[in-house]
Structure formats: C-alpha cells, structure tokens
Here is the input.
Amino acid sequence: MRKLFFFGIAGSIGFIVDAGVLILLLHFTPLDPFSARIFAIAAAMFCTWMINRNFTFQKGGRSVAKEGMRYGSVGITSALINYTVYSGLLIQFSELRPVFAVVIASAVATIWSYVGYSKFVFAAPKNSPEK
Here is the structure.
C-alpha cells in the first residue's frame, strides 16, 4: 500500500510538472501543443524517476545507469501510450483543451508505468540475494 501511495504522489507531482511545462511552453514559446508535449513529458519523467527512486520503490540493486536505462525504457513506452492517447484526443476532438487531454492520457498510462517500474526497474536482479 505504501508503494501505491508514493507512486500516486510521484505521479501527481509528475502530472503537475507535465501540465505546467506544457502550459508554460504553449504560452511563452512558438511551439505547438504536439511539440511542447514532448518536452513536458521529458521533464515529468525525470521528476518522477527521482521521486520513485528515492521514495516509492527500494533501489533494485542495479547501477544508477542501468536503473536509468530501465526507467527510461518503461517511461518511454508509457510516454508513447500517453502521447498517442493525447494526440488522438486532440485530433478527434479539436475543441478539447490540451490540459484535459493530458489528464485522460496520463490516467491511461498509469497502470503500465506502475507495473513496469515495480517489476522491471526497481525489482532486485534475479541473482541478487534480496530475492
């Protein structure tokens, strides 16, 4: 239960970073909602990695570089799911505000992220004495 609680906090903070960076980029740069979202997702992914690494999951016994690569692979596939849903919503419903599309897309990608992070990134290696 503790993991789910902290995962929810990390996700909430990541969502705020994602939506905040998106809003700032849309307001202060010439980026369109699709290009701006790529930068927003990257910022949110780094933020959630730091929170999940330090609070949600116990370190899995891998080097930071290996853990980062694993986190990135789960994060990128989650981001692709997230971005696909986000883009599909904006294309299908042209009047939908981008921030609302972020809410829906983020919710869809959450389960994939939790399972991937808990089972693939932060789980102890199979040859580790922790298992």
Remarks:
- Residues 64-92 form the longest helix (29 residues).
- The two ends are 20 Å apart (CA to CA).
- The chain has a mean pLDDT of 88.
- Helices lie at 2-28, 33-56, 64-92, 98-121.
